Amino acid sequence: MTLEYLRLRITTPTRPIEPGRGFYQLEEDALYVQIGLFDTRNRFFSYLESETVRLDFDRNARLIFVELSLPRRAWSVQDELEFPEVIEMADIRWLDFRETIKEPTVTTNRDRTMVRIRYSSDRAERNFYLARTVVAQVDSKDNLVAIWVERIEDDIAGREIATFRKRCRKGWAVTV
């Protein structure tokens, strides 16, 4: 069964905005988006997936990783695509797991440093940080409309994502 909507529970924030970044793996033609640190709190527990996107969650139902396996040459370019400006902090929990989700539409800016993974044509009412450069847009019923990732970095052999993880673990400031 394919989920019609991705349901979220949105409450008052309980911690600061997580570090996060998108890394385009050149040799794999895939976008990896890490959200937060990989530590004892943020270990894989469950997932939602479609043919081209996999969303990984920890045991607290928080999103910790996104993999977009659609090559960026197949992303639809929209010159007027703009990252959301008004973004709120929140504690976001995902309410469905181990299900198939519908295939999103994927759009990007001209230089492919930003991507919108859109799951619904419904109007986005609010924007929430999932991480510093990752945003969830939701409709009036707190269903996911889209996931945005900005400042995507090209990566070869996982070097950039490994450096990012190391910097986060050491507590270094992670630039946005």
Short structural description:
The chain has 176 residues and is mainly β. The chain is 6% helix and 40% strand.
Q: Your description of this structure?
A:
- The protein is mainly beta.
- The chain has one helix and 16 strands.
- It has an eight-stranded mixed beta sheet, covered by helices on one side. It has a six-stranded mixed beta sheet with strand order 8-11-12-15-14-13, with no helix packed on it.
- β6 (53-57) and β7 (63-68) form a beta hairpin.
- The chain is globular and about 40 Å long.
Question: Top keywords for this entry?
Answer:
176 residues, mainly beta, eight-stranded mixed sheet, 1 helix, 6% helix, globular
- Structure annotation, total helices: 1
Strand percentage:
35-45%
Quote the average pLDDT: 92
The SS-based structural class is mainly beta
The helix content is under 10%
Q: What is the CA-atom radius of gyration, in angstroms?
A: 15 Å
Poorly predicted ranges: none
Counted beta strands: 16
Q: Which sequence of strands runs across the widest sheet?
A: 1-10-5-6-7-4-3-16
End-to-end separation: 38 Å
Outline type = globular
Largest sheet properties:
8 strands, mixed
The helix/strand series, from N terminus to C terminus, equals EEEEEEEEEEEEEEEEH
